[in-house]
Design goal:
By secondary structure, the protein is α/β, with parallel strands linked by helices. It has seven helices and eleven strands. The chain has two domains: 179 residues, Rossmann fold (3-Layer(aba) Sandwich); 67 residues.
Length: 253
């Protein structure tokens, strides 16, 4: 996605998230290699799995994000365990077609803004899995209260320090909510300050996401050749109740 061109240098610090690593590690241990991650980004999940000895293939549309991942893999000595491909997750075609486990972590599936794009992605995943291979997709449960919010001004959401000592404020705002398409447009603004407090640079990054309802997603999965096994609301495997995350575990039929 083009919005990540100027975002990759901030991504790891802005997404310092580990709450799902054990979850994917457990499924990796059950399935074993090879493993496919779509929208792998800078390797937040892929590299820890490779560190544990799994053979991980990562696909991402942003070469900027993949370049960060390549450098991290090289530094960590994981070149022989990670294989990275720049491709659109709605139409990828890898040389390997026998993955035991595939997943799309941290809500990246929500960047697909049309049902036909979501379906194309699921079809591609299915064609790359072994018979009865496992597929996991994570999205946010549609929250009526959040979905009723109106566009507004920028608000501070996160702040973090860069390795050079500069400090970054990440602010965000809802720009537009298209109810018919189930698409929301956001903007993130990154304000980077030096140690003296002077503004070094400011970047505004657009972000579009589509929310999907539980049985809408199940229908797409079943149409693409999957059987839904479990749906969780969090990474502790609490059954889905319409709140929190919506983490769907499916199996290729």
């Amino acid at each position: 996605m083009p919005e990540y061109v100027d975002y990759s240098e901030y991504y790891d610090l802005d997404h310092d998230i580990t709450l799902d690593l054990d979850f994917y590690r457990q499924f990796a241990q059950q399935s074993d290699s090879p493993i496919l991650e779509l929208a792998c980004g800078t390797g937040r999940v892929a590299l820890p799995l490779a560190e544990e000895g799994f053979e991980v293939y990562g696909v991402d549309i942003s070469d900027n994000m993949l370049e960060v991942c390549r450098k991290k893999a090289s530094v960590q000595g994981l070149d022989g365990k990670t294989y990275l491909y720049q491709a659109d997750m709605t139409q990828f075609d890898l040389p390997k077609k026998d993955f035991k486990l595939a997943f799309i972590a941290l809500r990246s599936f929500m960047h697909l803004l049309r049902p036909q794009d979501q379906y194309s992605c699921l079809e591609c995943v299915n064609s790359h899995l072994q018979s009865r291979g496992t597929f996991i997709v994570s999205v946010i449960a549609p929250d009526p209260e959040k979905l009723s919010r109106k566009p507004g001004p920028f608000e501070l959401q996160r702040e973090f320090d860069l390795p050079d000592g500069n400090h970054v404020l990440r602010k965000g705002r809802l720009v537009e909510h298209d109810l018919a398409r189930q698409v929301r447009q956001f903007e993130f603004r990154f304000e980077e300050y030096d140690r003296a407090g002077a503004l070094v640079q400011e970047r505004t990054v657009p972000l579009y996401t589509r929310y999907t309802f539980r049985y809408e997603l199940q229908y797409l999965l079943e149409r693409a050749g999957f059987e839904v096994l479990e749906v969780f609301r969090d990474y502790e495997r609490v059954p889905y109740d319409g709140t929190g995350e919506m983490i769907v575990v499916a199996r290729k039929v």
